């Protein structure tokens, strides 16, 4: 958790993220910080469930293996579906997608699965318990993200299902029991999986990457293979060393929309090593989804003082959002995250000002306060913005009066950002234009050591030059016989003023 960020994927205990009344504990603040940094850098985080839940996760995965292992070699045509052909809020029961070599059993409380030919089928065991476990964890993690964003408590409760569900309500969230590349599963894409003589059997998905439309997704698998792209564009294996009570959590498109783009969704893909595996890769995937009859808007972010871009200004109906295609190449352009951008007029005015000064040699230089302001703008643009972009941080400056108290507290809204980008100690986290002159000097000195001393020497030399220039008319009246009275040469590098007087 140094200035360079987390060295690897963050691990957080779920018990430390459970909110409670009163002041937050130190463990809660530390866990929220690790959670937010891991999501910002890697778009994923490892959640550690209590040890007592490890047996439930392990038994559910064992039940999933047996369930898919007893399925027929090739599924009937009426249960072959792709993700595009299914209604997002009505999936339930067994589905197969031979093109992706994937089988899924969706468990959605309130909706009874319909089996072909009215046959009786026993689903994987423990689904209600796993659904309740993952659902509670997802809500606690969502509240922790809201705390980090300085939002009010449970800001997304209006778009989530009731807890518990009312009579005749159907859950919008879903628990999917998945199986990838079961060896006994035969489909039209069988030729895409090839056996190497000296190596294992490996399958790569047809799609380069996928993105969930959920608020949050929790995934627990029995074998490694889940890759998530970090903010630098690298694909990272995130489930390679999971413990028996650990699961992967990553955000989805719905949270990206609801937070006005301040929480980026995870791009993920699955690669499976098939060596010595008779069951394939089984996983439990829970998706916390918003209710269909609600809207995704950024009102909570606006109330918290965040800047809302044009694409997030209008509320979006959840049903339209879930059925609409979202081109990821347009949504994600990492690592160049849009943070704080200066208007072109600033640069234009600076260039115009410099041209005027060159064209008019008699004009006075800018006063120190204005030069500091322009220099602070340059430092922010070149130094702070680069640091924030590399770390995947979106800058949102505080109000000057409010931040005077923030700099003295550990759990302030801007504490993590100031620590991450190395903001000067004692300087309010506001735009340099709003800083007092002394604070601007501290700001510049932190990012450009030695700047103050060098420019103070230049200021003294400039003032000396102005004093001598103003006295030239008086000297000219006295020494009318002189063609040239004073020649001034300024050597800023040496910090000395050489005067030479020539007489005819």
Describe what you observe in this structure.
- The chain is an alpha+beta fold and 504 residues long.
- It folds into 3 domains: 314 residues, B-lactam Antibiotic, Isopenicillin N Synthase, Chain (Jelly Rolls, Sandwich), CATH 2.60.120; 106 residues, no CATH class; 48 residues, no CATH class.
- It has 13 helices and 17 strands.
- The strands form 5 sheets. An 8-stranded mixed β-sheet has the order 1-2-10-7-13-5-4-3. A 3-stranded antiparallel β-sheet has the order 9-8-11, with no helix packed on it.
- Helix 1 packs across helix 3.
- It is elongated.
Structural class: alpha+beta
Arithmetic mean of pLDDT: 76
Q: Indicate the low-confidence ranges by residue numbers.
A: 188-199, 203-207, 333-363, 464-504
Total domains, how many? 3
Question: What's the β-strand tally?
Answer: 17
Report the portion of residues in β strands.
5-15%
SSE sequence, one letter per element? EHEHEEHEEEEEEHEEEEHEHHHHHHHHEE
CATH class of the largest domain: Mainly Beta
Helical content class: 25-40%
Shape: elongated
